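Pasting as-is:
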Amino acid sequence: MSEHAELADWDRDHFWHAFTQMDEYEPLIVDHAEGVWLTDTQGNRFLDGISSMWCNLLGHRHPGIDAAIREQLDRVAHSTSLGMSNVPAIELAKRLAAITPGDLQHVFYASDGSSAVEIALKTVFQYWQQCKNPRPEKTEYIALDQAYHGDTLGSASVGGIERFNGIFGPLLFDVTHLPTPDPRRLPETIASDQAAEYFLSQLEQVLAERHEQIAAVVLEPLIQAAAGMVFHPPGYLKGVRELTHRYNVLLVTDEIVTGFGRTGRMFACDHEEITPDILCLGKSLSGGYLPMAAAITHPEIYSAFLGSSTSGRTLLHGHTFGGNPLAAAAALATLDALEEEQILATLPDKAAQLTRHLAKIEQLPHVAETRQKGLIAAIELTSTPDGNQSFPAELRVGAQICKETLSRGVMLRPLRDTLVIIPPLSISPEELDLLSNVLCESIDKITRQVANTLTPSP
């Protein structure tokens, strides 16, 4: 038996994969990587068009990040953050305070995005119990339908995707979910330029009625990723911030996907110049190298947790690997690379290049529309020329297309029949051309084949 075959057997028998039906799983085993390219145990190379699930920011084997981790290994790999600290975690907290919006300057570390959201929810709850003017009745949360904030019970509670959370309903706490602010889903009487106002009016109605009980609004700013890369209308985020200020409700923004340049700005919040009360980061924080996340807040919230050790004001939360030195070293090197390589300055040209490709893709007969912000893009499929009909879900057309792109050397993963492009920011123009052309050809081939099976024979 070959080494690959043996690994594939072990993989199927023992490795239970996330969001994967193991009864249908076909092993694809990564052996090594370089830049935007992954190589499997059979020697096949794939362009990583999804940044290894939206987290690899600057390519694999980035020399600066590799070197920082090796150097840190010669010092210390892990030390607890309970009652003590370490050098890279301190330096990273200072750097994050400098680059995040407004006066966000107090960093609580976690190991993953779900946990960062969990920290935010618990911080909000406890804040209202012990702030200068306590409001213990403020215990409820508002979130958006089709939101995804993670898989822990708290983060799942503020999530809004039924197929992820439905079975766990009895374990989750009640949350008010507002309709997804999707400008494609407006009543006929509402013009597209009124979309933000329309969706904000829904939020204000709830806040006006129940702000005395509502602790926070939790949302993904600008883009709801797992919902199918739903883009909010311009002005919506700024309006949410204004309403939460007006009604004395906190705002938690989940930038686990959108942070660190993905949208063309360092943070999605920067596009509308708002500062949340708590900003959640993850995925790209360490360049996608090591598990690391953070919830970052401002002095007013932080000060509510200060007091003597017997005061009961401490945030009693923490994870073993929060503030891990290796992960922090990787994150510091990632921030260095973003600055030294002027990555954000390269994005407008790459985004414009992607826009040109999307315009071509949008002309395909079974593409309803494309959406883009920076180097995040989505392609919506349709079974009919008018774009109003989805393919039957059981055909898994998005998955078929991604299987076709894989056969052509490009790795993508769909959100049902929404195809997502989110490559490492370091992707070259030539690699971006390859990714886009392969995707265009694969969409055309598979959708035509599937459409022919749906057309009745004469």
